[in-house]
Design a protein that fits this description.
Layout lengths: L3 E7 L1 H18 L5 E6 L3 H14 L4 E10 L5 E9 L9 E9 L3 H11 L5 E9 L12 E5 L5 E2 L15 E6 L2
Parallel strand pairs: 2-3, 2-5, 5-6, 6-7
Antiparallel strand pairs: 1-9, 3-4, 8-9
Helix pairs in contact: 1-2
Bound molecules: inosinic acid and magnesium ion (MG).
Amino acid sequence: MKPHHIELLIPSEQVAARISTMANEITRALPKDLMVIALLRGSFVFTADLIRAFYASGTTPQVDFMTLESYGSGISSSGRVTVIRDITENVEGRDVLLVDDILESGRTLAFAKKLIKERKPRSVNIAVMLEKPGKRKVEIDADFVGFAIGDKFVVGMGLDYANFYRELPYIGAVAFDD
Ligand code: IMP
Ligand code: MG
């Protein structure tokens, strides 16, 4: 890691409030018996908060996890997505909600959506905590977005820089000290 510090971008109270509103939006729009598929590792904190907000809003999901890798250990994308660990649930005929931390190039979510669609779910929707508009390299949109942010490298709420900072309860931006 290069010398850097973290600047506060979105405070934890704002993140929490938005996640609770998102849960309401999703509950209004989609069936209650969702199959949530969290894309690891980055989405574990967001998913945990979102499904607890579902408890309040009335969605009663089942949950599974898929570990994908597209980034190396730094901040630049390799552009290739591989499955490290697949889900174990059957999604045929189910309403799937794919959950990820951030939508940037779109490669990760486009890959995951295609993979899940081949297994004949009834529907596939996408929820992301963050998106970076204008950074898309493949055509894909999220159905539910927490916050749109500028072109910054962000950490916290599960998002990492070299696998650090996932524990931050807020969204921070990495600022390099040169
Ligand atoms: P995409 O495939 O380019 O859309 O990127 C998706 C994945 O890249 C996310 O699931 C993150 O793990 C990672 N990523 C993209 N932007 C950031 C960032 O600003 N901070 C940390 N990870 C990021
Ligand atoms: Mg990551």
